[in-house]
């Protein structure tokens, strides 16, 4: 991932008081739906449109009053997504990776939380009532996990959007790691981005 270095969680937690921690979460759920009667959806994966017009994952900075990374993340999810997130909690077991940027002393921690489809739909429905809706968060979007017959529509077109930081790379990595897309599909999408 460009201009970042991957760290183990223990390394990241030992960086010292000059470093700030920021946590993000990919929320996903199995989805048995079928688009146009022929395209299986398989999973619903949420991202958000941020205040700066870029796509990213919900989350934000961990504050001094937060007793853990996960407490900070769950607080930010509540602020950005609303009361429906009270039905679940992102835990240390949901942790995926940490990356330190080359700029300011910030380390980003990435989590992936599997929900039920009902929980995910409740988050989508309640998000417009969240404290930060219309401010930090302009709306939620589902990632299309399919490619249309033209080879461009669906996920390839979605990946042409503007993403914050390494969110695009994290999305592709997690889709592969969690088995939400086949490895060869993810590899071809990664390669097409570097052309």
Automatic annotation (TrEMBL):
Annotated localization: Nucleus, Nucleolus; Nucleus, Nucleoplasm
Record's catalysed reaction(s): dIDP + H2O = dIMP + phosphate + H(+); a 5'-end (N(7)-methyl 5'-triphosphoguanosine)-ribonucleoside in mRNA + H2O = N(7)-methyl-GDP + a 5'-end phospho-ribonucleoside in mRNA + 2 H(+); IDP + H2O = IMP + phosphate + H(+)
Keywords, in A-Z order: Nucleotide metabolism, Nucleus, RNA-binding
Record-linked Gene3D superfamilies: Nucleoside Triphosphate Pyrophosphohydrolase
Cofactor: Co(2+)
Main location: nucleus
EC number, as in UniProt: 3.6.1.64
InterPro entries linked: NUDIX_hydrolase-like_dom_sf, NUDIX_hydrolase_dom, NudT16
Pfam families, A to Z: Nudt16-like
PROSITE patterns reported for this sequence: NUDIX (PS51462)
Domain Nudix hydrolase: 18-168
Family statement: Belongs to the Nudix hydrolase family. NUDT16 subfamily.
PANTHER family membership: NUDIX T16 FAMILY MEMBER, U8 SNORNA-DECAPPING ENZYME
Protein name: U8 snoRNA-decapping enzyme
Organism name: Galeopterus variegatus (Malayan flying lemur)
């Amino acid at each position: 991932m460009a201009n970042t270095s991957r760290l183990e969680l223990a390394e990241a937690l030992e960086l010292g008081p000059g470093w700030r921690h920021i946590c993000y979460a990919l929320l996903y759920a199995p989805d048995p739906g079928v688009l146009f009667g022929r395209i299986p959806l398989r999973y619903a994966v949420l991202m958000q449109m941020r205040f700066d017009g870029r796509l990213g994952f919900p989350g934000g900075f961990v504050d001094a009053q937060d007793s853990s990374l996960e407490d900070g993340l769950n607080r930010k999810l509540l602020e950005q997504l609303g009361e429906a997130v009270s039905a679940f909690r992102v835990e240390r077991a949901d942790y995926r990776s940490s990356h330190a940027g080359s700029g300011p002393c910030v380390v980003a921690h990435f989590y992936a939380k599997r929900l039920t489809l009902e929980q995910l739909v409740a988050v989508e429905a309640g998000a417009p009532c969240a404290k930060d809706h219309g401010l930090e968060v302009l709306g939620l979007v589902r990632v299309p996990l399919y490619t249309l017959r033209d080879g461009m529509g669906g996920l390839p077109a979605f990946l042409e959007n503007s993403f914050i930081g390494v969110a695009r790379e994290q999305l592709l990595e997690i889709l592969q790691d969690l088995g939400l897309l086949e490895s060869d599909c993810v590899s071809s999408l990664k390669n097409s981005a570097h052309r």
